[in-house]
């Protein structure tokens, strides 16, 4: 081997070694969790960054990137707390709007709530990144509380708050936003939100992070507020209960460090490891994926049947794509798997470019028989309502908007669609005796419930939930129950809704009649569906561990 060949061989081995080493390092960084077991570990993790951290559970422990602050006592309220070190800027934090920091206890852990006060600090104005990790409890009361913000106007800065309309925690950076479904009043959580200069991310506990594309943003204010919208004294955030708060300016901590701090904060505050199951990773079965850029035209006669005909039986449940009013350009992929005998999970990825308000699709999990020409998925259906003692469901359903979709340019409702017939099981095609929908999560422009009749649902195990009731005639009686406080839970006692709707006479106009009280000759419940109606927008919907039980 000559000297040139030898040198090339050595260089090749060196390059190979470097490549393997880089791959190993990348793999290790992706899989390891940064060890965080103490407050000092948190301080060490943020040592090279600019920001602050305070432990509300001990009241006297507040630190910045350059070390701990001194002279602040949370039990008497902060007047001024200044970081006199030599990092990029001094930190000044004060309580705005007067008052002190009242304490609270949850899970036997102490924390603070700002009440009529707001904590403001001169640490805002980042443009290329941010890290926020907060252990907190968001009570069911209040309206759209803001947790952290340095935004001074629409389109600039960062804001982390709760979106009532979308039943989600929203993280906004400039004009970009990402959402994580969450039901207020679910107990202590650890919330992480970060921007690394290219993606915007939000994560609840150790659930999979939800991301959206986001580059450099317009700077907000140099002032940043904890517990309120940055340009307001208070906005409902005062009800939020804080345990631990970490903030980094203009940088995203490494993923392993974020995971380690989440784990540590969870231990301190008593938060669960996961708030809800992650989306199932399942192979696509029938129905097959629909191609994007698809031009379709469905006959009118098929408007209320599963079109374009993709459906598959999974156990006792039929998985249906149910696209029945699509625009010229759309895509929808449906995946499903039987988790255990009697339970099924489903994932729908949808993208409908139209902005008209008409429903384009209702991909769903069906049990029963909707029309006479279809075969029932379960021999128990159709079922006389008179002969039903209990009819309950279990499962969760959560929807996340993707791409450029926001609550203002997407429209959907997720929940149940239930069909009834009079004295003949499953009416003929295109003819329905009665229909009942239950919306657990929704984003429908122009829908502001409040003037409709109200129904109080008794939650099995304790508590109540309020629903608004809408009644329409769309060729047959239609009744929709709309959750006043949106939830990801689709486990319901369906007979409470059914009995209320029939007792109120909402189906009295059906032809043939749907009698109430129920008789031994009718009416029947033909089919129960759970899914999502989409008018427009792009998103992902996951229904997990769903099952129907009836006695």
Q: Helices, strands, pairings?
A:
Blueprint: H1 3-31, H2 39-45, E1 50-55, E2 61-64, E3 67-68, E4 81-82, E5 92-96, E6 103-106, E7 109-113, E8 118-121, E9 130-137, E10 146-149, E11 158-163, E12 168-173, E13 176-181, E14 188-195, E15 199-204, E16 210-213, E17 224-226, E18 241-249, H3 255-269, E19 311-314, E20 317-320, E21 330-338, E22 344-352, E23 364-368, E24 383-384, E25 391-401, E26 411-421, E27 434-443, E28 454-458, E29 464-473, E30 477-483, H4 494-503, E31 524-550
Parallel strand pairs: 27-30
Antiparallel strand pairs: 1-2, 1-18, 2-3, 4-5, 5-8, 6-7, 7-18, 8-17, 9-14, 9-18, 10-11, 10-17, 11-12, 12-13, 14-15, 15-16, 19-20, 20-23, 21-22, 22-31, 23-31, 24-31, 25-31, 26-27, 26-31, 28-29, 29-30
């Amino acid at each position: 081997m000559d000297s040139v060949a030898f040198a090339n061989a050595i260089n090749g081995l060196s390059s190979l070694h470097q490549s393997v080493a880089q791959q190993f390092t990348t793999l290790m960084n992706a899989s390891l969790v940064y060890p965080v077991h103490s407050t000092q570990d948190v301080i060490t993790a943020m040592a090279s960054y600019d920001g602050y951290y305070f432990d509300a559970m001990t009241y006297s422990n507040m630190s910045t990137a350059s070390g701990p602050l001194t002279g602040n006592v949370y039990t008497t309220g902060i007047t001024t707390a200044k970081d006199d070190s030599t990092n990029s800027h001094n930190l000044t934090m004060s309580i705005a709007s007067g008052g002190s920091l009242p304490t609270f206890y949850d899970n036997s852990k102490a924390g603070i709530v700002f009440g009529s006060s707001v904590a403001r600090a001169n640490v805002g104005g980042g443009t290329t990144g941010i890290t926020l990790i907060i252990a907190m409890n968001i009570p069911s009361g209040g309206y759209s509380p803001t947790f952290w913000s340095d935004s001074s106007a629409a389109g600039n800065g960062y804001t982390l708050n709760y979106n009532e309309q979308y039943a989600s925690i929203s993280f906004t950076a400039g004009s970009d936003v990402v959402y994580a479904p969450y039901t207020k009043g679910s107990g202590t959580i650890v919330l992480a939100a970060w921007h690394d200069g290219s993606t915007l991310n939000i994560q609840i506990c150790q659930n999979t992070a939800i991301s959206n594309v986001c580059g450099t943003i317009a700077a907000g204010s140099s002032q940043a507020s904890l517990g309120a919208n940055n340009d307001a004294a208070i906005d409902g955030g005062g009800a939020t209960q804080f345990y631990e708060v970490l903030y980094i300016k203009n940088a995203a901590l490494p993923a392993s460090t974020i995971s380690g701090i989440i784990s540590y904060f969870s231990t301190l505050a008593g938060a669960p490891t996961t708030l809800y199951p992650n989306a199932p990773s399942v192979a696509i079965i029938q129905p097959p994926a629909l191609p994007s850029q698809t031009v379709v035209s469905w006959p009118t006669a098929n408007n209320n049947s599963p079109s374009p005909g993709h459906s598959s039986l999974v156990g006792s449940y039929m998985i249906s794509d149910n696209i029945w009013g699509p625009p010229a350009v759309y895509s929808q992929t449906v995946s499903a798997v039987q988790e255990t005998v009697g339970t099924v999970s489903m994932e729908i990825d949808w993208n409908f470019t139209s902005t008209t308000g008409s429903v384009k699709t209702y991909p769903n999990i069906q049990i029963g028989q909707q029309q006479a020409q279809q075969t029932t998925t379960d021999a128990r259906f159709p079922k006389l309502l008179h002969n039903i003692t209990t009819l309950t469901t279990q499962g969760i359903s959560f929807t996340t908007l993707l791409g450029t979709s926001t609550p203002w340019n997407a429209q959907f409702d997720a929940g149940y669609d239930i069909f009834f017939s009079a004295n003949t099981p499953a009416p003929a095609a295109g003819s329905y005796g009665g229909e009942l929908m239950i919306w657990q999560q929704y984003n429908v422009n122009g829908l502001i419930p409040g003037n409709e009749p109200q129904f109080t649902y008794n939650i099995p195990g304790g508590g109540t939930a309020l629903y608004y009731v809408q009644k329409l005639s769309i060729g047959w009686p239609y009744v929709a129950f709309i959750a006043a406080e949106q939830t990801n839970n689709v486990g319901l006692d369906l007979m409470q809704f059914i009995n209320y709707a029939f007792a109120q006479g909402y189906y009295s106009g059906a032809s043939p009649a749907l009698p109430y009280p129920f008789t031994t000759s009718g009416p029947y419940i033909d089919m129960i569906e759970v899914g999502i109606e989409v008018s427009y927008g792009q998103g992902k919907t996951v229904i997990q561990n769903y099952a129907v039980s009836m006695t």
